[in-house]
Amino acid sequence: MAPIKLAIVGVGKIVRDQHLPAIAANGSYELTATASRHGTVEGIPSYPTIGAMLEAVPDIDAVSLCMPPQYRYEAAHAALAAGKHVFLEKPPGATLSEVQDLKRSADEKGLTLFASWHSRYAPAVEAAKAFLAATTIRSVNVIWKEDVRHWHPNQDWIWQAGGLGIFDPGINALSIVTYILPRAIFLTKASLEFPENRDAPIAADLRFTDIAGLDVHAEFDWRQTGKQSWDIVAATDAGEMVLSEGGAKLSVNGELKFSAPEAEYPALYARFAALVAAGQSDVDLAPLTHVADAFMLGRRKFVDSFFD
């Protein structure tokens, strides 16, 4: 089968670090064009806007959208209108309603729309899901704390309305939790900390439960220096399960049970190719729904101004 002629829109750090190596290593793709205000890829035709790219290179099959979420809807709509399959970097959009509209449009046109949650493809996530399915879960504690100055230096968009703030990394944790737990959870309480000079939160404390009364507690914070924390801890009848390092390692009662090299983006692009081949879409909005719920239910606390 001929490779998928793929274009990337929004050439930034995540594209260079993750998307380009994954695409280059997958024979299902041929990188055909890029569109970005500033970034380019050596040897690949580049255009200032997605509209200019689609007009100049009409034989593109699919588009990977990697710009900030506030600008993704119009680009995705344009790509679908032009008959292209669409890969959405996480989060899939700035609002639930716009992503739902994109899904309707993709379905009507028989195109693939993929809301990619890369953390679900971390090496030990499937093992954690299987472990939890075989036991009774008593409680879950999620600790997702990192240094925003290290991971998002001088990225003003992430602090703007729609940029999600601490939920940009926190949604990774929520994507894993909503995948590995056997029942749907829903938010009951939230506290969000907003720097006085920013429109998005720097920290969040969330409480969830499910139909059986499971206690799920999540702590997200962007002010952590030193060792970063990306852990999900579950107390179960089979022992304490710890999914650590963002889903890379699984331990039970302190004993390492599963560990493998990180390969999230190669797995995402393999999934996208399979969806295109099958004529299917994958648009799970559960993680983004929980973020929206946090903004609706959360109590707001203003804290000291934040400067990069």
UniProtKB/TrEMBL annotation:
It comes from Metarhizobium album. InterPro entries: Gfo/Idh/MocA-like_OxRdtase_N, Gfo/Idh/MocA_oxidrdct_glycsds, NAD(P)-bd_dom_sf. GO terms for molecular function: nucleotide binding. Pfam families: GFO_IDH_MocA. Residues 4-114 form the Gfo/Idh/MocA-like oxidoreductase N-terminal domain. This is Galactose 1-dehydrogenase. Transmembrane segments: none annotated.
